[in-house]
Amino acid sequence: GENVEQHPSTLSVQEGDSAVIKCTYSDSASNYFPWYKQELGKGPQLIIDIRSNVGEKKDQRIAVTLNKTAKHFSLHITETQPEDSAVYFCAVSLRGGSQGNLIFGKGTKLSVKP
Amino acid sequence: DAGVIQSPRHEVTEMGQEVTLRCKPISGHDYLFWYRQTMMRGLELLIYFNNNVPIDDSGMPEDRFSAKMPNASFSTLKIQPSEPRDSAVYFCASSLVGNNSPLHFGNGTRLTVT
Lengths: 114, 114
Description:
The structure holds 2 protein chains of 2 kinds. By secondary structure, chain A is an all-beta fold. Helices cover about 0% and strands about 55% of the residues of chain A. Chain A has strands at about 5, 10-15, 20-25, 30-40, 45-50, 55-60, 60-65, 70-75, 85-95, 100-105, 110-114. Chain A starts with a strand and ends with a strand. Chain B contains no helices and 11 strands. In chain B, a hairpin with an 8-residue loop joins strand 9 (about 90-95) and strand 10 (about 105).
C-alpha cells in the first residue's frame, strides 16, 4: 500500500525565517496532495493542496511544490510568524480514491520563536 | 456554519465499558469519515460513509469497533468492550462530493481507557 514519509518531525525557526517540510510517497498513481495544519486541541485544517497536473501552487506565504518523478512534495512557509506554530501533516490520496482516502504523514511540529 | 461537531470532547472510561462517540457533519456534505490519532500511528482512517452508506471499513481495527450513520446529520462510533490501547483522539470529518472538496475535521474526542 501507499507509504508516506514526512520530515522533519520537529522544526524550530526564528520569526521571519522560512520553514520547509518534505514528504515522500510510494504509489506513483497518487494524484492529490493536501497539507493540513493542526493546532492544539483542534482538528486538522486544510491549508493548501496540489494535484498531480501542477508542479507548484502558492497562497500568500504558503507554497507547495510537487515532483512526481521523484515522488516527493514540499510545504514552504515564508516570513514565519508565531501563529504558524502548529503540527503540519502532509497527505496523499490513494489511487482512484475519494477525498477521504488519504494517507497522512506522521506530522511536523513547527515552532516559531519570536 | 458551525462546522463538524463531535461529542463528548473528553471521555474517560474503564476497560470493558462501552464507549459511544458522536458526530454531526456539516449540513449538505455527502461524505463522513472517522479517523483515529495516536502518537505512535498518527492519523488513521477507520471508516467512511457516502450518503449514509459505509463504503470502506477496512481501517476498523477489530470487531469491537462499529460505526453507524442512521441519517445525513448524525453518526456514531462505538467501542465495545473498550481496552486501554483504544486510548486516542478520535476525529470525525466530512466533505462534499467531488475532487475539489477538502475534509473538514471536528475538534475530536479524546478517549482515555483505564
